[in-house]
Amino acid sequence: MVQVQPNSQSILNPGFDKVRTRFAPSPTGYLHVGGARSALFNLLFAKKNNGQFILRIEDTDQARSTEESLRMMVSDMVWLGLNWDEGVDPVTLKDIGPYGPYKQSERLSIYADVAQELLKSGKAYYCFMTDAEVEAEREKIKSIHQNAHVESPYANWSLDQAKVELQKGRTAVVRFKTQLLRKDYILHDLIRGEVKFPSDMVGDFVLLRSDGMPVYNFCCVVDDHLMKISHVLRAEEHLPNTLRQLMIYEAMNWPIPQFGHISLVLDEDRQKLSKRKGAVACDNYRREGYLPSAMNNFMALMGWSHPEGKEVFSFEEMLNLFSLERLNASGAVFDRVKLKWMNAQHLRALDSKTLWEKILPFLNDAQVKLPAQSKNIDWQIKAVETFKPKIEILSDAVELFKSLDDSQFFISDDSSEALSWEQTKIVLSVWKKEITHHKEENFSESDFIQIENTVKTEAAVKGKNLFMPIRVAVIGKPHGTEVKLLVPLMTKQSLLMRVDQVLQKIG
Predict the structure, then answer these.
(1) In this structure, are strands 52-55 and 87-88 parallel, antiparallel, or unpaired?
(2) Where are the beta strands (DSSP E) in 329-415?
(3) Would you tell me how many other CB atoms lie within 10 Å of the CB of residue 309?
(4) Which pLDDT belongs to residue 8?
(5) Complete domains list, the chain, with CATH
(6) pLDDT digit string (tens) for 13-46?
(7) β partners of residue 23
(8) Please, which residues have CB within 8 angstroms of residue 61's CB and are 6 or more apart in sequence?
């Protein structure tokens, strides 16, 4: 029985002198929130223990890996603030660090050399079975209901014998030999506790394909060893891979890192989170206007818990308090409603100047035309403070600020009732007169209140018969942000243009 467990006196297993963790995505698409969470936990654990966090790119699937996907993943990690110590440069994608290359596609000769060591030691062999032969053997085993693995007729060939066939032009995969490993492998998982793997769970597995490309379990072990990775924190779905990896570590007589398998991220139906159930790409949340601080806060609570039970906290607080002991092995539900609520908490904690700077790119992208005074910082802060209670994500600001854009002013259908009231025309006529006689181009809140009181008196109306028509004349609809807060953000010219349109509609 092979026992793989952490040193009880240290967070490091024998053979390691420093905490080093890694995140190793495949650049075949977007950065999934589940992957981002794994990266976050690896970063937090490394930094909490004065260690290093490495970004490695697993791009051996050349048919699906693209530079575009890699750049998008790297960009998302930079946006989230998940900064790595070694790996690919976020701009040039060139290597930074002493253990490169950090892209697996550039490490093929390294994998070939390790495979040769295993071949020479008799722990691996060349297998000349074709895909068709392997499949036929599988079907044969299945037909007689045997719970067995495909056995290669080449398992006991000598290396010299295999080389003769290779020289003839035959192609072969390199397989790891498991037939002599009749024992249990016991993993003391940092999150799940003891996990037992009987060796006969797997047959002789492939290390190198016939084209020389390594398979995941092989290059993963080689890279983790050569990059001195001390802790492997990854998703629960990788747990079945661990047996093959432990066998390779053992065969190479390499020190074994500590493993911790993080719970799966689940959707609201407690199924594995997938694209079919909605947005799962970090890029989507960035474009919608979620804050990195809120995303990290939310992802941390998918599997980890704050010692004081807090739900909203900063990255610095998370870093100071993070520990593997507080990671939960059960599945974590991705609750989009809670994420939006949490984002609102982080957003409203920002000072108004910072929030304006974050909102402005969304307004520019939507081509929202703001009043001329929007260049003034006092106006910006007042506008942000007016709309902040209604903003949960940054993109919410677009519809709110559109109410200040004259080019997008229109009278909504739900204004028809207020416009049909007998008093409305006189209310708006007095409103227009008072706006016209106002001596300045801009208004204060007290200016608005004074004008409203004049309208109330001269038109002899109050309540909704007063408020709703004025609101329609300001924003084109009878419900919305308080007019006394909006008018100080608008110009006299804008208010007159709008009330004229409404009066024209009334006829």
Answers:
(1) unpaired
(2) 332-333
(3) 6
(4) 38
(5) 2-265 (3.40.50.620), 350-400 (1.10.8), 409-506 (1.10.10.350)
(6) 999 999 999 999 999 988 999 999 999 999 999 9
(7) 55
(8) 26, 28
